[in-house]
Amino acid sequence: MPEEAPMKNLVCEKSRKALQFIEDVTCNADEVQRKVLAEILSRNANVEYLQRYGLNGNKADREAFKKVMPVVSYEDLKPDIDRIANGDTSQIICSQPISEFLTSSGTSAGERKLMPTIEEELGRRSLLYSLLMPVMDQFVPGLDRGKGMYFLFIKSEAKTPGGLLARPVLTSYYKSSYFRDRPYDPYNNYTSPNETILCQDSYQSMYSQLLCGLYQNYDVLRVGAVFASGFIRAIKFLEKHWILLCNDIRNGTIDPKISDPSVREAVLKILKPNQKLADFIEAECTRESWKGIITRLWPNTKYIDVIVTGTMSQYIPTLDYYCDGLPLVCTMYASSECYFGLNLNPLSKPSEVSYTLIPTMAYFEFLPVNRKNGLTNSITAPTSLDQKKDQELVDLVDVKLGEEYELVVTTYAGLYRYRVGDILRVAGFKNKAPQFNFVCRKNVVLSIDSDKTDEVELQNAVQNAANHLLPFGASLTEYTSYADTSKIPGHYVLFWEIYHSGTTPIPPSVFEDCCLAIEESLNSVYRQGRVSDKSIGPLEIRITERGGHLTSSWTSL
């Protein structure tokens, strides 16, 4: 016990400093933002991109920056991104070397966007992570006396022609020394050994993480995943494999399907035969209903840590069913472009979640938007952003309560006045720093997991598929779509109304071909979710008559 006191004191001091940091940067938000922009511009004074617009970074102030630098989207930057990806090491957008590309869930021409990053950005991401538990401890004390069961996974990575890694931001973080070699912290003590998280095989990773989480069930005080969809996939995995998991717990073994030597070694260091626990898990899993299974198997759980804002809100009823009404906590707001901020009131209802942007992370600006007729995905913004009057974006401290904006960032890694595509609503303020509700992702019409399909992409995919109808004297007259998450994994559903003027019946195989044609036309994030991650189910086309009566249904299986 005496050894625990110094550790407790150290953790308390770290928490105090973290909360004081939040207080300081939010009280002086505009001053911090000016310093951040000045630092970014002075560091990158000689880069090609700034000089292209006549900006002298060493002498430039915020006003000069706003006057000459355009507001841009990914398509504007793509030629420079491609140069870097192809091996050009000159100072194109950043004075520091681009260390890797972070692949965005957003796409360009069907492929993942490549977001440049530099080595020191890992430190900024780590800083934001370090603020989460000090905030949470104010609302749920005692989290240092147990563990977190988090289902965390890495995804596949590639190399650009120039040899730079291209991978998702979380894969980059989990593989970094900031995560792998993190010092012991009782507030960040996980049931999953690093080896199970870093396992490339998704089945072995999920199985071994669940096995460790079940074995340590009474130590677990909080559970979670990054997205709500990922957490529900873990529950569905448990439904399917609980017999094997119970057998391993009963015998202190690990199933032969888990063949990764480092995973087996790490799990067997934890696992010992436990007949009583195996019988308990078996009894719970064989009950008629799985309602409240999380609180039944992990009875000390205080909350569920998952993202349930934006399109993830569709999973809230399913989470409530399995978690018996435990609080759903959204802790932070981040993307491949930049880590933005955190939720300072983590026990708020999902519909009321707001994120406080941390002013040190990047330089933030805001483009006013108007949503047409209250529709989430119908958004208008100033049309001619190349005109100076439209470039006068709103600074962080000048946004107005209740107004909606598109987030625009300037980062240390070489993005300047970049439109992220997230629509945010000002919900309040923490000192001088605004707090935002996440409203939606601009133009996204369908999303199941990390996929984001927009109207133009869906229209093109449907058109490609509808061409299969032409030889039979048929054409598509109207369609609509939605993301069906009533089963896991969720899937896209399209309702087609068809005009058939020919006499030749349309064979069932044609509609199956239509399903495949749509899936093959969609972006690489969707295709990875379908094939590799198994996080998206087969697309379904439902044929309707005029008036909306369903006549038949087809899938891509």
From TrEMBL:
GO terms for molecular function: indole-3-acetic acid amido synthetase activity. Belongs to the IAA-amido conjugating enzyme family. Residues 355-441 form the GH3 middle domain. It holds the Pfam family GH3. It comes from Populus deltoides. It comes from the Eukaryota. The keyword Ligase applies. This is Indole-3-acetic acid-amido synthetase GH3.6. InterPro entries: GH3 (IPR004993), GH3_C (IPR055378), GH3_M (IPR055377). Residues 457-547 form the GH3 C-terminal domain. Keywords: Ligase.
